[in-house]
Amino acid sequence: MNTPSPYSFAPEGHGTKDLHLVTVEAHEGWLETQSRRVRAWLAATGFAAKLGEVALIPDPDGGLAGAVVGHGTAHDRKRDRFLLGGVRRKLPPARYALHHTLDQDALNEETLGWLLGGYSFRAFKTSTPADMATLVAPAGVDAQHLQTIAEAEALTRDLINTPASQLGPEELEQAVMALANRFGGDMSVTYGDDLLYQNLPLIHAVGRAADRSPRLLDMRWGRAGPKLTLVGKGVCFDTGGLNLKPGGSMGLMKKDMGGAATVLGLAQMIMASGWQVQLRVLIPAVENAVSGSAMRPGDVLTSRKGLTVEVNNTDAEGRLVLADALALACEESPDALICMATLTGAARVALGPDVAPFYTHDGALAQALTAASARVRDPLWQMPLHPAYAPMIEPAIADLDNAPAGGMAGSITAALFLDRFVEGVDRYAHFDIYGHQPTSAPARPNGGAGQGARALFAALPGVLDL
């Protein structure tokens, strides 16, 4: 028998249990609508509708009648999101129907949270997963839309969580090929020394020291509509190169392809939804390794665009591979260009792990992303492409410096570096994401996490006039 997907809704039917979502503010009024038996039971258990509080309600025969979940105060709800994703695994494995007083955006958020709460990374688990509670799609939600988002987020998380021993450039290529095959897309790949012959020298320089060949993955889907190009950093493991990272900084570097994983999740959302766009996904897939052929500090490299780059730190490799990919993307003048990368520690120092900074010159795009971010609870924050910092990335002996000395404004200078390779495209945005959830939270277990994709999925139809 096929096991239902944790990212799907349950069919309506006999035996469905009631699941009440109750705020602190509405708690007393809600109690008045319940039977004396339920009121007495909840009083005995001390249920007060605190955020995440769960009370199971027995039926007269001692079975399960349903459950009540506390939705806290308005202050609580501003601080936390996806509550139902956190309580899903606290509930007995039954089918539930949600009763609530949520507005549409909050209903979408909590229902999506329920689906995302079904995620776990089980690639290396030998045990059988426990049965989980399921939910009938609440009235008023677009069930297919939410399932599409949840399934795409699961793809992103799975890719980030997979160890580099099982996910190098070749395996990332296979993941992109599987996505292309699933939705009828096309794919081409440029490998190894062919990167030099195809004028992608920075991608080659970063990946040439590894035993696993560097490559550029180029997927296309759709033949009509505006041109949308997604570029994702695919550094499958980052040792730092000859500027070797300390052990404490290397432990999470399997996630350094989080930009690639996130654009693939977004691409899956777009293709599954049948958008009328000409979609292109470009992923420079490399491993930044240490060997005799590794690029050296002080080397000067010439990019696809012709700009020269002084390598002052081999651990600032992500902007190098992205530079060639962005220059290639711009040669087709897409209507919108999105770049996503786990690029700088400076972004984490500035905004922490949960908020992803983005950079753009396009005010309308920035406004659309900011509004969508708030609406779908996908935290983003616009940062400035501050031109006064441009001299920081301009060394004495080359056009550009990949790692300015001093350490100040690291996320901004990285964005300014990439901006030099974007030409002829007005709608461009770069996202400096973390791609990782450091501590478990509702619907977001510790491990890989997509950032920015849901906000983009909500904003781009309006931006592209779809």
From TrEMBL:
One of its GO terms (biological process) is proteolysis. Signal peptide: none annotated. CDD domains: Peptidase_M17. Its EC number is 3.4.11.23. It is an enzyme of class 3 (hydrolase). One of its GO terms (cellular component) is cytoplasm. Keywords: Aminopeptidase, Hydrolase, Manganese, Protease. Residues 313-320 form the Cytosol aminopeptidase domain. It comes from the Bacteria. GO terms for molecular function: manganese ion binding; metalloaminopeptidase activity. Gene3D superfamilies: Leucine Aminopeptidase, subunit E, domain 1, Zn peptidases. Belongs to the peptidase M17 family. PANTHER family: LEUCINE AMINOPEPTIDASE-RELATED, PEPTIDASE B. This is Peptidase B. It comes from Roseinatronobacter ekhonensis. The lineage of its organism: Bacteria, Pseudomonadati, Pseudomonadota, Alphaproteobacteria, Rhodobacterales. The gene is pepB.
